[in-house]
Design brief:
By secondary structure, the chain is α+β, with helices and mostly antiparallel strands. The protein is globular. β1 and β2 form a beta hairpin. It has a 6-stranded mixed beta sheet, sandwiched between helices. The chain has a 5-stranded mixed beta sheet with strand order 7-11-8-10-9, sandwiched between helices.
Length: 419
C-alpha cells in the first residue's frame, strides 16, 4: 500500500492508496453525517438527499449522469447509514477526472428538480415497502428502534412512510446546506492513480464546498426491551441483543472476535449447537454494530413456530456460556477468519477505498491493515471476559416478527440471562 494524505484549504481531507497492478480506480466522498443527525420530523432526509444527488444538476440531467459514467464502463452508487453518507464510483484509471467531476457536480450543483423529487419520493416509498415485506431485513430496524427508543440512533435510515410522503423539497435541500461541509468529508481513492494529480483535480472541483457546518449529535442511550409483531409468516424471525462497544473502544476488536467465534460461520458455536446439533433454525448468526459512542451485540435467528419455545432458552444458555470464554482452537479459528476476510478484501479497490475513508472519518488516520491484524492477534481470554462483563450488566433487547405466540415471556427471558 502506498498511502498519501492531503488537506484542501476548506478542510476537505484527501486520502489515496496507489495500486500499480490494476487498471481501475475506486473513488468517493464520505460525509460524516447520517440518519442520527436528522430532526425527528425529517427522518429519512439524509437518505432522500442521497437519492436526489443522482437526479440532475445545473448542467447534467439524471439521464446525462447515467449515460456519461456508463459510456466509459464505470458505475456510480451511494449509501446512507446512521452515521455517514457515501457517494462513490469505479472507473478505468484514465476516467478518474470524469468520475470526480460527476461526484463534485452532484454534491455542489444538484438542481432538486421538483418533478424528479416527486418521482424519487415514490421510489423511496417502494423501497420502504420492500423492506417491510422482507422480515429478515426489517427486523434489524425494529431491533435498533427497541434498543435505542425515542432517539435519533433508533430511527430507520429509510425514514417512515408518513414522513417521506410529506417531506418537502426545502427540507431536503436544507439538510444539505446545514450538514454538508468540507471539514466533515473525506475524499478517498484507491487504484492506479497519481496522488498529486488527484489532489490538484480535487482542488479545482471541490474548493467551492463550504468549509464546515455545526452539527448537533444526540448521544446514543441504550435502553433495551421487548418488541413483538405478529405476522402470518412461515418463520419466526428474532433478534436477541445487548449493548455493544463504540468503534474507538480498546476492546472493540475483542468484541468482533467474540462475535465471529460465537456466531460468525458454519463452525461457530451457535451454528453447530443450534442448527447442526438441535435443528432448531434454518439461519443463525451473531453480529456487532459499532458506533462513535455506543454499539450493539446481537444474535439473529430464523426458526419455525413449533421450535420457538425451545430456541430462546437455548440462546440464553449459549449466551451465558460466554462467561466461560472460548477454547484456544475456537479463538484461533475466529482470528483466522477475520484476518483472511480483511486481507482478501485488500484485493478490491472498492473495499480499500471505503476502508480508508471510514478509518479517516472515525479515527482521523489512514487505514493500516498490519495494525488491524496485530489488534486481532492480541485478543485474549481477558479481553473476551471484559466484553462479556460489560454487556451483561444491561437489560437485553428481544425482537420477534412472525408467529410470536410461543415466544418466551420477556421477564422470564431476563431471569434466564441473569443466571
Amino acid at each position: 500500500m502506498t498511502v498519501n494524505l492531503a488537506t484542501l484549504p476548506n478542510g476537505l481531507r484527501i486520502v489515496t492508496d496507489r495500486i500499480d497492478t490494476v487498471d481501475t480506480v475506486s473513488l468517493g466522498l464520505w460525509v460524516d453525517v447520517g440518519t442520527r443527525h436528522e430532526a425527528p420530523e425529517i427522518n429519512g432526509a439524509a437518505h432522500f438527499l442521497e437519492h436526489m444527488a443522482f437526479k440532475g444538476t445545473e448542467r447534467r440531467s439524471a439521464r446525462d449522469i447515467a449515460e456519461e459514467i456508463e459510456a466509459v464502463g464505470g458505475h456510480l452508487n451511494a449509501y446512507t447509514s446512521r452515521e455517514s453518507t457515501a457517494y462513490y464510483a469505479k472507473v478505468l484509471k484514465e476516467d478518474v477526472p470524469l468520475a470526480l467531476d460527476i461526484l463534485s457536480d452532484i454534491l455542489l450543483h444538484s438542481s432538486f428538480d421538483p418533478a424528479e423529487l416527486e418521482r424519487e419520493r415514490a421510489v423511496i416509498l417502494q423501497e420502504i415497502g420492500q423492506a417491510n415485506d422482507t422480515p429478515d431485513d426489517i427486523i434489524f430496524d425494529y431491533f435498533q428502534e427497541r434498543a435505542f427508543p425515542e432517539q435519533p440512533m433508533g430511527r430507520p435510515v429509510l425514514g417512515r412512510p408518513e414522513i417521506i410522503r410529506q417531506l418537502s423539497r426545502e427540507a431536503v435541500m436544507g439538510y444539505l446546506r446545514e450538514h454538508y461541509g468540507a471539514a466533515r468529508m473525506i475524499l478517498s481513492a484507491a487504484g492506479n492513480l497519481d496522488h498529486d494529480r488527484f489532489v490538484d483535480l480535487a482542488a479545482t472541483l471541490l474548493s467551492g464546498m463550504p468549509a464546515d457546518r455545526a452539527i448537533a449529535t444526540e448521544p446514543a442511550r441504550y435502553v433495551g426491551g421487548d418488541h413483538r409483531e405478529a405476522r402470518d409468516l412461515e418463520q419466526l424471525h428474532l433478534v436477541l441483543g445487548f449493548p455493544g462497544l463504540p468503534l474507538g473502544d480498546p476492546d472493540y476488536y475483542a468484541a468482533t472476535v467474540l462475535s465471529t467465534a460465537f456466531g460468525g460461520g458454519m463452525s461457530s458455536r451457535l451454528f453447530q449447537e443450534v442448527r447442526e446439533k438441535r435443528g432448531l433454525v434454518y439461519s443463525i448468526h451473531s453480529f456487532v454494530h459499532g458506533y462513535r459512542d455506543g454499539g450493539l451485540f446481537g444474535i439473529y435467528a430464523g426458526t419455525g413456530e413449533e421450535e420457538a419455545s425451545e430456541l430462546v432458552p437455548v440462546l440464553c444458555e449459549e449466551t451465558l456460556r460466554l462467561t466461560d470464554g472460548f477454547a484456544p482452537v475456537e479463538l484461533a479459528r475466529a482470528k483466522a477468519q477475520m484476518k483472511a476476510g480483511l486481507l482478501m478484501s485488500l484485493e478490491s479497490t472498492g473495499a480499500r477505498c471505503e476502508q480508508m475513508a471510514q478509518h479517516m472519518l472515525i479515527h482521523g488516520t489512514p487505514f493500516d491493515p498490519a495494525d488491524m491484524v496485530r489488534r486481532i492477534e492480541a485478543v485474549d481470554d481477558a479481553a473476551i471476559g471484559r466484553v462479556v462483563a460489560r454487556w451483561r450488566t444491561a437489560p437485553p433487547t428481544l425482537v420477534g416478527l412472525g408467529p410470536v405466540g410461543r415466544l418466551e415471556d420477556f421477564e422470564r427471558l431476563r431471569a434466564r440471562l441473569a443466571g
